[in-house]
Prior knowledge:
GO terms for molecular function: calcium ion binding. By secondary structure, the protein is mainly beta.
Amino acid sequence: MHLELKLTGKLDYERNSFKRLTLSARDGGSPVRSSHVSVRIRVTDDNDNDPIFEQLEYSVTLLENLPSGHVVSRVQAHDADSGAAGRIRYAISRRNKATAQNLVNINAITGDVVLKQKLDRESHNGLRVLIEARDSGPNYQRVG
Ligand SMILES: [Ca+2]
Ligand SMILES: [Ca+2]
Ligand SMILES: [Ca+2]
């Protein structure tokens, strides 16, 4: 006997990584004779979730002349995938203006944003810094 199973929808590892089906076959005899078979489906994880920041915007007010090395803020993102596909690395975006790129560094793992130079109210007031989170999986997702 030949049996073909077709997917009628998308499998989602995050919702259900394991499925079990029981199939039965019966003949047309009298009495009916039947048997059952169980099919187990294991779903593996695809990198289908982007890292998502806890906040869309982080806002800090700082006193000028703070020393370099001062931790300005900590950003956090989450990624629903497992393994490398959910492991997040942070970076200061290359799309930032030079002033922002020269002013802060970010710890790729903790998300700590650290001053690289002393703050100057006259040149750094109202500065915006764009931070990226990306996962480490294949076909990584980058989110600004
Ligand atoms: Ca999914
Ligand atoms: Ca996934
Ligand atoms: Ca991911």
